[in-house]
Amino acid sequence: MRWGIAGRVFRRSMPLFAVLAAMLGSAAGAVSDPANPPRPADTPKPAQAGDPTTAPESKGQTEPIVIPFELLRSRHMAVQVKVNGTGPYRLVFDTGAPMNLVSNKLAREAGLLKKDERPVLPLFGMGGPKTIQTLEIGAVQLQNVPAIVMDHPTVGAMAKVLGPIEGIIGFPFFARYKTTVDYQKRELTLVPNGYEPKDVMQGLMEKLMNPPKGKPEPRILTPAALWGFQVDKANDDTQEGVTVTRVLPDSPADQAGLRPGDRLLTLDGRWTDSVADTYAAAEAIKPGQTVVVVVLRKGQRLELSITPRAGF
Amino acid sequence: MRSRLQTISMVPIPSLCPRNRWQRWHIAAALFLLAGSVAAAVAQPTLANPTPPETQRYKVPYRLTDSQHVLVRVKLNGKGPFHFILDTGAPAVFLTKSVAKKVGVTADRQGWAVFDSFEIEGGVRLGKVKGRIEDLVQLDGMNTLGLAGVELHGVIGYNVLARFRIEYDFTADKLGFEYLPNFEPPDPERLRAEGPDDIQMMGPFIKMIAALTGIKANFAVAPRGFLGIEVAQRDGKVVIQRVYPGTAAAQAGLQPGDIIASVRNQSIDVPADLHRALRRAGVGSPLVLTIERQGKTLEIRLELGRGL
Q1: Comparing A1 with B248, which gets the higher pLDDT?
Q2: Averaged confidence pLDDT in chain A
Q3: Which of A228, A289, B31, B249 lies 20 to 30 A from A198 at CA?
Q4: pLDDT digits (tens, 9 = 90+) for A154-165
Q5: Is A289 helix (H, G, I), strand (E, B) or coil?
Q6: CB-based contacts of A276, cutoff 8 Å, min separation 6
Q7: By residue range, what is the domain housing residue A58?
Q8: What is the pTM of this model?
Q9: How far is A110 from chain B (nearest CA, A)?
Q10: Is the pLDDT of residue A233 over 50?
Q11: Farthest CA pair distance, chain A
């Protein structure tokens, strides 16, 4: 019975999601200009799958795959994408999108939505998460790619001015490669790197379903190795860096020449402007890895090479 | 807009019961939207030409946020660092109003400001970078719910990104930035907006979700406590190699040669176990170690100190 009520309540809460979804509309910059009717974009012809110049990806291949992109007048990047063998469709490539997103039109044509399948929400045709069996972008072919079905209002607005755009390609795609973005050549260059992107929806769901109870705990910044020094910074000290207050005898820091009183500016190229920053920088450095630290000593910048060791 | 807000406030509070699967999913879906592509409200036809950086190739440290955004740190006019998302879905640099205030820049009537110095961690320093001062609801919303796991201050979009050949490789701990000296990226064309004003309602709305679900942003960090030992792995055991004088380990009487058998009741076989056992132990945390010394088992109690 509670579920029945919940169902009704759910329907009544639609405006809530309307508002949430509207957030994506912030790319309003892309929207219509009557003086500039849609016209074909000005960019190189996208490579199609099967293009003789680029062989389809095979297992273990590490040859770079080049995918031309179109620079839209809004200066978004667009790529040609085939979904489950249909297409190509034009999608926006977005490093700031943690999810892939496809329109209802694309989802239906590519069989992601069944004929009689209705949107999960009657809003922007939100169809929930789907799995694309085969995603092809240029010579790249990926299996089982997650995507969300939705008629993104921003994408729709852009399409009105710029011609059809059927979604967004984001992190779950490009994270699988060493991806180089070159706006001068208007090319993406991809080399498979074995990285398996996490499912962001899953992570967010977990965060939502298990909100931490009680007093919030700080995240502990955990150095991956022992360096042998200590830093401090006064609350009213706004200068860059932190002050080294102690160096343990014969420690990696001592052997590298770090001295108490040194002002530590960077550790392996990372800013150390607070005690926390210093630890955060040390989180990434493993025992035995030699890195450069930059210190200020009596007005002089010094570069020291430190190799931290296994320790705690 | 007023009437819409009223509609929203009429949504009964139990409708956001976190135990309701549907609700969870929809809230999560909404959060995806929050975490979605951040794009610009306005693209100004002429973006200032930034002063080029000193050299061409850089290694830029980054982190992936909990929301899978690529985050880099930026100092603006020497202030910061601030947290920016790399976003090819945005036509320009965006910065929240409160950070703009901290930096001491003011926006012109169209909402744009110029940063005399725009420095990305890793040494990339540009001059005269144009950015938009605007509270993007996406960033606000993510910050309210703490979705990224770190506070977000802005977005780096096309006007800076296009000047570099950027290599993203999430198996490496840095991004590759290569400045393109002979390339003048074409400015975004002005496309008239008929944009949804509804966006502005999001801020208070997200705060309502936060209140109803009890989700709070928590960006607090603290250093791990320090023991003062070096260890090695020997015969499937973790052995203390060195104890630094004046540290928590020395004061508690740990000695080189001691085998660390367990910490906080977690058995230790490899250094990674020790790393895990200490992962949530801040400065001052009490610690119980079981060690083996010359065939005897000892229990050592200590409080973690400062250092790394």
Answers
A1: B248
A2: 80
A3: A289
A4: 787 778 888 999
A5: coil
A6: A221, B221, B222, B223
A7: 41-203
A8: 0.83
A9: 22
A10: yes
A11: 75
Per the domain annotation, does A109 fall within a domain?
yes
Instruction: Name residue, tokens 């007093």.
Output: A215
Residues of chain B contacting A219 with CB distance shorter than 8 Å: 149, 218, 220-222
Q: How far apart are CA A100 and CA A119, in angstroms?
A: 17
Whether A8 maps to a domain, the answer reads no
Domain end residue (candidates: A154, A169, A203):
A203
CB-based contact B220 A218, cutoff 8 Å: yes
Q: What angle do the packed helices A2-12 and B21-35 form, to 10 degrees?
A: 30
Total of domains in chain A: 2
Do A181 and B279 make contact, defined as CB atoms within 8 angstroms?
no
In chain A, residues with a C-beta closer than 8 Å to the C-beta of B244 are 228, 248-249, 251
Smallest CA–CA distance, residue B27 to chain A, in Å, is 8
Give dist(CA B275, CA A150) in Å, integer: 43
Q: Which residue of B has its CA nearest to A191?
A: B169
Distance from CA of A20 to the nearest CA of B (A): 6
Contact between B225 and B248 under an 8 Å Cβ cutoff? The reply is: yes
Mean pLDDT score across all residues of chain B: 82
Considering the domain architecture, whether residues A52 and A155 belong to the same structural domain is answered as yes
Burial of A261 (0-12, 13-18, 19+ CB in 10 A): exposed
Q: For B31-40, what is the mean pLDDT?
A: 39
Q: Give the residue from A169, A177, A208 with the most B CB atoms within 10 Å of its CB, the best one to mutate.
A: A208
Query: Which of A226-230, B38-42, B216-220 bottoms out in mean pLDDT, i.e. has the lowest?
Result: B38-42
Residue B7 to residue B3: CA distance in whole angstroms? 6
CATH number of B229-303: 2.30.42.10
pLDDT (tens digit per residue) in B257-296: 999 999 988 999 999 999 999 999 999 999 999 999 999 9
